[in-house]
Amino acid sequence: LTDVSGDGGGFQIRPKSLSRHGRTNINLPDGRTVFNISRRSKLRTKSFQAQLSVAEGESKRAALIVLADMAKRTMKVINPQNDLVCLIQKPVKTLLLNAAFGAGSELRVDVAPGVDCSALLGVVFGITCMGQ
């Protein structure tokens, strides 16, 4: 369980207790689920690329899809119309810290204009809690 809080409120990231695809819920303090994130099946997508599905609320229908490269250094968040919504990158400094010390969690997040950046940052927190 991870709690994220700020001046305007906060949210909780909680992994689902039993799930085939490692579903993680992002909840508001009152218990309502804002997003749920799950791994997409490599058999169904016919891709070796790591993919995550982000759905609104308790739904299983993807509102966003996260595509990661093989090293999970760069992740693209796309919407159902295949528009790039967000780009998430691990800088070289972070990769070196991970290799040398096993620590380093810096991410560079670029959000497209007109997109709700606070919702996408909640999704980024959820992805990092899943170990992606």
From TrEMBL:
Transmembrane segments: none annotated. Signal peptide: none annotated. Belongs to the LOR family. This is Uncharacterized protein.
